[in-house]
Write a structure and sequence with these properties.
The complex is a heterodimer of chains A (233) and B (357).
Chain A (H helix, E strand, L loop, with lengths): L18 H7 L2 H7 E2 L3 H4 L7 E2 L3 E5 L6 H14 L4 E4 L6 H7 L6 E4 L6 H11 L2 E5 L6 H14 L2 E6 L11 E13 L4 E14 L5 E6 L8 E8 L1
Parallel strand pairs in A: 3-7, 3-8, 4-5, 4-6, 6-7
Antiparallel strand pairs in A: 1-2, 8-9, 9-10, 10-11
Chain B lengths: L1 E5 L8 H17 L4 E4 L2 E3 L2 H8 L2 H18 L3 E5 L4 H10 L8 H7 L8 H10 L4 H6 L2 H8 L1 H11 L13 H9 L5 E4 L7 H17 L5 E5 L9 E5 L5 E4 L16 E12 L20 E4 L2 E14 L10 E8 L4 E6 L4 E6 L2
Antiparallel strand pairs in B: 1-3, 1-4, 2-3, 5-8, 6-7, 9-10, 9-14, 10-11, 11-12, 12-13, 13-14
The chains are: A alpha/beta (233), B alpha+beta (357).
Chain lengths: 233, 357
Amino acid sequence: MFAFSDDANQPRRRPPVPSALRDLARPVVAAAARTLPVTQSLSSILPRGALRRGSVSVVSGSQGSGAISLALALAAEASAQGHWCGVVGISDPGATAMSEVGMDLRRVLFTPEPSKRWLEVTAELLDGVELLIVRVQAAVAFSAARRLSARARERRAALIIVTEHRQHWPLPADLGLSIRSSTWMGIGRGDGHLRSRRLELEVAARGEHLRLVSVWVPSQDGAILVAHGHGDA
Amino acid sequence: MVLWIRDARSKSNDVAALRIFAEALSIVRQRCPFVEPVRLGVMALPVRSVARFFGGELAVCDLLRDDLAELLEHHAMELHIGIADGLFAAVLAAGHEELVAAGETPLFLARQAIERLHRPEIAELCQRLGIRTLGAFAKLDEDRVLERFGLDAVHCHRVARGVEPELVGVRDPDIIKRLHLLEAPEIATTQVGFFGGTSARDERAQRIAIRLQSHFGASSVQVALDKPGRDPAERAIFDAFAAEQQTVLHDSAPWPARLPTPSPMTIFTRPRDIQLLDEFDQAIGIDGAGLLSATPAVYRDGGSRYVIAAWAGPWPVIGPWWRQQQRKNRLQILTSSGCAVLASHDGQGWQLVGRYD
């Protein structure tokens, strides 16, 4: 072991590792086993550039603000690379839109209306899929959230909660994406059509400063793009 | 606006002509996603919004001529472009290479020969009565037309007056089907090893799906089958998960009159009735030319009112060829709160069919 600790000459805190060096030093193989890939453009807003297996992410935004699209965009790359996904509680899903976002629908299990038994369904599905998107309509009980987080960690699946209010998930999340505003482009008063949507996000990753970023979901050419970061909030 | 590619029509049963037409369609679609095939060699597009985007109707004509020049020159074909209100008038305008100004379509129609209706019986009777133009025909009293000529003639009469935009028979009901068949070989039909059973992952997912179904019922776990279609609601079906192999059609070809992407993330399986209103709270419908009857300001969904910030359309969505009569119009609506929805007009009223979540 290296003794960083109690040497009086050493500064108390480790200096930050330059990002270029950090990229080089990253253990590639091990990381791939611990994470699920995300679309390159979204990876820049995630801690360590990927979705960690066993983690819980909370995507929040009011109805119609793009929260579902954003959650699916997070899952798309893993889905495209052959990982199984589950989608719970999204009634009337638009399969066309999902494949446009990049989901491979051949490996998606839908449970559109789990009603009161959503907790059991979710817990079971965590056994079978590597990525699970769950839309909750009301506050989740503390005990239920604890149980699901533990199950996700144990099964090494990434759990993505989609909700209208961040408070619906009572535990701290590994990753929180809150949609602050959503702006459609391309549509006019009687002309054009919906083309792209700019989301202003608040990114709260565990152990990191809160950040504000803009992403395009979808962008002009249908892909997901990160416009620019605003730095710390 | 109607584009008529001449020569393609003369060899009407030729697959090569169909192929060239399909190619021309895809070229035009890059400028305007709402172009729709009418019959072999003839395509129609709503020119108003396109013209606004490209700077006038003439500019659109020039652009499309340039886009198509190489293809048509190569096959020694000619392009005729015409603009008028309504499909029937626009097809005639293309024959004359005429750009009929807004509101002058009735005058343009009035000058056309009665034979243009392609109803020999009516034409013959009219000739005997000394009626030679659509204008003269339009002046007849509708009741008398019904009395003398029958129901179909009333329809023709309305078209001649510009009340109805489309003459039955102008469209080839099979053209979309034929284009589909043409494109069919390019669709990759993948036999998905849903559980072709090689990977441990697939087996694990299968096991859990079956377990869930045994606990919560067969329909509790569903899979999506993406199938080509013009209507977002028609384009995917959800079905109970089944462990045997599933065929998923991958939609790589652009389908005629499909809505532009992105597609709505939520498709309501039970569409809700809404009212589209103008600033004076008057209901808005679709007029004979396929346009909104007034400028939309608000839509009412149950007890809630949503202020409309922007909208696009209406775009006609032709039903499948066996349901030609069920013409629908689609309208994208963006509310002042930034929420985008898709509405549909079926001739009776408006319904909310999807939301861009």
